[in-house]
Each structure stands twice: as structure tokens, then as C-alpha cells.
Amino acid sequence: QVQLVESGGGLVQAGGSLRLSCAASGRTLSSYGMAWFRQAPGKEREFVARIVWSGAMTFYADSVKGRFTISRDNAKNTVYLQMNSLKPEDTAVYYCAAGPVTGWRQLGYNSWGRGTQVTVSS
Fold first, then answer.
1. Given this model, what pLDDT does residue 119 score?
2. What is the rounded CA–CA span in Å between residue 22 and residue 7?
3. Measured between alpha carbons, how far is 48 from 33 in angstroms, rounded to an integer?
4. What is the distance between the alpha carbons of residues 87 and 14, in angstroms, rounded to a whole number?
5. What is the distance between the alpha carbons of residues 51 and 25, in angstroms, rounded to a whole number?
6. What is the per-residue pLDDT for 26?
7. At residue 90, what are phi and psi to the nearest 5 degrees?
8. Rounded CA gap, 45 and 39, in Å?
9. Nearest residue to 121 (alpha-carbon basis) of 94, 82, 89
10. How do residues 55-73 score in pLDDT, each as one tens digit?
11. Rounded Cα distance, 4 and 110, in Å
């Protein structure tokens, strides 16, 4: 029901910054959250950050705390991932996801974007 389209990926040098965007369209639940995941070559998909739409409460993986910031624009139905102090190990395909939330708890994800490549060179 919800379509997600990521944008903003690209090639950056270590220490640089990049901002990813994820635009959502279609029907969503009254209470939902959106998140960013990433998958590096040869590795499992991992959680990066999520945001509860109502109230904008955010959560981060330990590996990106202090460097990445997730935010949302309610009017545009868009979430962002501001990535600063990028490291080569941040290189991955980044995926946007959405799903139902109860309070601050994310129940799961039922919509996924196609992903956008982020490459950090040393």
C-alpha cells in the first residue's frame, strides 16, 4: 500500500556528508514509523535508524549514533537520513522501510524501497 522511493545516494570521501531522502506515497496506517536499513557486500542487512512519525521519536544503531540523524517532513511524507563523518565501513545499499507502530514500539515493516547505493572512499 505504501510506496517508498529513496534518493540521495552517491560517492563521497571519508569524513564527508550525505543526506538520503525517502518519499512515501499511498496509504499508511494512522500510527506508523519509518526506518533506514543498510546492507554491505557480504553482510546481513542491519538496522540503522528509525523514527516514529507521531512525535518524531528517534532511535539509532550504536554504530551510527552521533554521526547520523533521522528526521521527517510531515508535509512531504518524507524521511531523511543525514550522514556525517562518513567512514568506509558505512558503504552499503541503504533501504527505506515503513510499518506500523504502537507508541514508540515498531511492530514491523511492510513496505520497502529499492535502495540507494552509498559508497565512502578512503
1. 98
2. 6
3. 14
4. 5
5. 17
6. 83
7. -80, -10
8. 4
9. 89
10. 889 999 999 999 999 999 9
11. 11
